[in-house]
Amino acid sequence: MTDPFENPASSPEGGSGLADSASTATDNLGVSGHGHRKLTPEEAAAMEEKIRKVEIAISLVLRIGVTLSVVVIAVGLGIMFAHHSEYTSFTGSFSYKQLTSSTSQFPHSFSALGHSVASGQGRGIVVIGVMILIATPILRVAVGVLSFLYEHDVPMALVTLYVLIVLIGSFFLAGA
Amino acid sequence: MGVGAVTPLVFVLSLTLVAVAAGVLGSLIGLGGGVVIVPALTILYGVNIRLAIGASIVSVIATSSGAAAAYVREKMTNLRAGMFLEIATTTGAVSGAYLTTLLPARFLFAFFGIVLGYSAFATFRKRHAAQPLTVSNDRIANYFNLHGSYFDAAEDKEISYKVVGTKLGLFLMYVAGLVSALLGIGSGALKVPAMDSAMHLPIKVSSATSNFMIGVTAAASAGVYFVRGQIDPIIAAPVAAGVLVGAMFGAKVLGRITSKTVRLVFVVVLVVISLEMLQKGLFP
Predict the structure, then answer these.
(1) Which residues does chain B have within 8 Å of residue A36's beta carbon, measured at their own beta carbons?
(2) How far apart are CA A133 and CA B175, in angstroms?
(3) pLDDT attached to residue B36
(4) What is the pLDDT of residues B230-252, one digit of tens each?
(5) Which of A73, B31, B135, B201 would bridge with B205, disulfide CB 3.0–4.6 Å?
């Protein structure tokens, strides 16, 4: 708000309204060589409004992803305990270490995961919940691209699109 | 627990409590909570380090998404700066995957142990000069409009700030992505100082924005951990659920505590991570 406005186009000599709007226009095209961009109050308010919409969209995606994943994980855990009565006592001879050793069996490929869920295994459902959790940030980036496009914020849409491509690319590069 | 074994039920319940604590701490200072989860699993529960690291990735994503939902809504996160800087972190993470064989891990641990030690010192030194900038000559920050404001409940006022040093910030974020891919830790630990010291974002915004970004970096490598069999459901379930609850609670706390407190908690955790890395590098 109190920015010194150093763009030569708005120096006292050339400080007419015309020069002001011209300099703003070139700055918005990203060809300004002077670095400073001063938004008019209306533009600032419009920008604020745009940012707010994107924020709300992204916050919503995160909340839905997180809630869904917790519910699925809880259901999976419940089924896991319901199927194995030896897990659920507070005292007993069955140690958790049998489930957390390097030889413990749990799905770690998509086909095994599908098989595990199809046969109603709790551990498979838990992994599905974890998958939803992992997918949430990626989905959040995708929603970012769409929101910025919808708000006609091309530079930020390109930035987010690049991030999305690198993210998806990293999955293939890793051979997942 | 005396007689008999620790049953899976007791394991799940107790680990959930540990995870809640990890989620609160992680969401407050913009780190993933792996700082708590990995030592708890390996030392307290004797879990294999491979599975502990898999759980740590889950905890990072849970902290990030759990807290970010609230931080973004409350405008504590600088969404545009975060998404802009993700260019560098994701690129760093991908290039890190190819550099693993070039440098010995021991050297990297020692080197970044020193870097984080210095960051802790720099972050601590800044504790009195917490005034945000009102002017920015940074062309990139101005072009993408990365500046912002947030409501600070502890000071009971709206705080506007300008962003500077985006080039240095991008470089440091690239390094942060690189390190997290190479060493599996330290991504948030480098992101917060990059925003706080180099780009002059307020510490709370740095923390919330780092928190927002770490989920994306972690998600990029989560697929690999799954395929390698490092995501054990009996560990992941309590970690994910507990951390999410903790992170949602932590997100409510950040606004109310003072910036100085956030900074000091961050410095303490940074010193711990730095010592941990130095130990791995110098006395493995």
Answers:
(1) 137, 142
(2) 26
(3) 87
(4) 889 999 999 999 999 999 999 88
(5) B201
Residues A136 and A131: their CA atoms lie apart, in Å, by: 9
Q: Which stretch of DSSP H or E encloses residue B283?
A: none
A123 by DSSP, 3-state: which? helix
Q: What residue has token string 């932590």?
A: B250
B118 Cβ neighbours under 8 A, 6+ residues apart: none
Domain residue spans of chain A: 46-174
> How far apart, in whole angstroms, are the C-alpha atoms of residue B212 and residue B251?
12
Cβ contacts of B222 on chain A, cutoff 8 Å = 134
3-class SS of residue A92: strand
Q: Is the dihedral of CA B215, B219, B220, B226 positive or negative?
A: positive
* Residue B131 identity: Q
B200 token code pair:
């002059």
Torsion over CA: B45, B47, B53, B59 (sign): negative
Please determine, for residue B186, whether its predicted confidence score (pLDDT) is greater than 70: no
Q: Which of A37, A97, A173 sits opposite B143 (nearest CB)?
A: A37
Distances in Å between the alpha carbon of A46 and those of A41, B173, B213? 9, 30, 26
Helix (H, G, I), strand (E, B) or coil at A83: helix
Residue for token digits 């909570």? Answer: B33
Sequence letter at residue A167? L
Cα B228–chain centre separation: 23
pLDDT tens profile B260-271: 888 899 899 989
Intra-chain end-to-end CA distance of chain A, in Å? 49
| Distance, CA of A25 to CA of A37 (rounded, Å) | 10
Tell me what pLDDT residue A120 has. Answer: 83
Identify the sign of the CA torsion B72, B75, B76, B78: positive
The parts of chain A modelled with pLDDT lower than 70 are: 1-39, 173-176
Q: Which of residues 16-75 of B touch A (CB under 8 A)?
A: 45-48, 50-51, 58, 61-62, 64-66, 68-70, 72-73, 75
Of B113, B137, B251, nearest to A38 by C-alpha is B137
CA distance B120 to chain A (A): 28
- Using the Cα atoms of residue B102, residue B104, residue B110 and residue B116 in order, give the sign of their dihedral: positive
ipTM value for the complex = 0.86
> From the CA of B121, how many Å to the nearest CA of chain A?
32
